[in-house]
Amino acid sequence: MGLEKNNKNHIMISLILALSGLAIAIFFTSVNSYFALLGGTAGVMMAGGFPAICYYKVKGLRTLNQKLIVVFMTLVVVCGVYGAILSVVAPS
Prior knowledge:
Layout: H1 7-27, H2 31-59, H3 64-89
Helix pairs in contact: 2-3
């Protein structure tokens, strides 16, 4: 996503992911809520985020139709992540 492929960027992204996972694990004391959040966000990324990124990398964004596809998939991912967070945070 615009980052150079070098060892420094890989280390920084890995540290950010590890620290964010640690912060989530500290704040969610229930193991069930932690795995629900992790599974919900990872599932949404697998279903919407990765296909949009792959489509962008392979096809590019030349036409309006291609831009709308990527915008729609981004909207789906944002709504899905928001829903996953709400399902854990808001008690039913």
